[in-house]
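Me: I keep going back and forth on a fold encoding question. No explanation is needed for now; the record alone will do.

Assistant:
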Amino acid sequence: MSSAIEAVAATMQDRLDAMPPTRAAQRDFLGTYRRTTLAVGDAVDHGVFEDPAWVDEWDVAFAGFYLAALDADLAGGSPPRPWRLAFGAPESLPSLLHVLLGVNAHVNYDLPQALLAVIPDAGFADTALLDLRRRDHERIDGILSARVAAEDGELAARSARRLLDRALTPLNRRASRRFLRESRQKVWHNAIELQKARMAGPADHAARLAELEVLAAAKIADLLAPGQVLLRLAVAGFGVTLPPP
């Protein structure tokens, strides 16, 4: 495994070890994210990606957005609104919802920015290179899908489940794979929209990023609505889409 991804995973473990008792719910997302990061590292080692060096760079940049938000919140600062709402969610919520709140902030809000961080404007202008980046972006779907059952088991071990929840487990896992794929497709669209705004200038980029922040924050209402959240997301979708400017 690359030293960069190993270092990120080690940093996440340090945060887990130091997590205050009052932040127990946030351990669910952080633990899930750490295991997923290690799975991406294993996939890089096994030749899953066409450009493994770029995936290493991207994975580290992506993790940096979450770690910066977490550190800001722990220090009493003000992370972006999707993260602020996720970190401030009641501890009494089920572990699944804490994980979904984190996924919403990190995928819907952070991931388009992470793509921009590792694809320069010239890369967006190079059709062949951009297609290569898109294909490696889509290959992450397979890794996430493979992790769904294992992560579901991790959450089940920490949260009591009703009989109905247990009965719906196979359907919920299929739903999770579906909406994770759907959200990543929207991430690619949003990254292209942000890059167009970046080309137009700092003010345009800041305005579009603010739109994305509002959309990701608004998604939390869907996550916290009563009912079977995974099935609802499979139908309505998990991702958010930047409209035309």
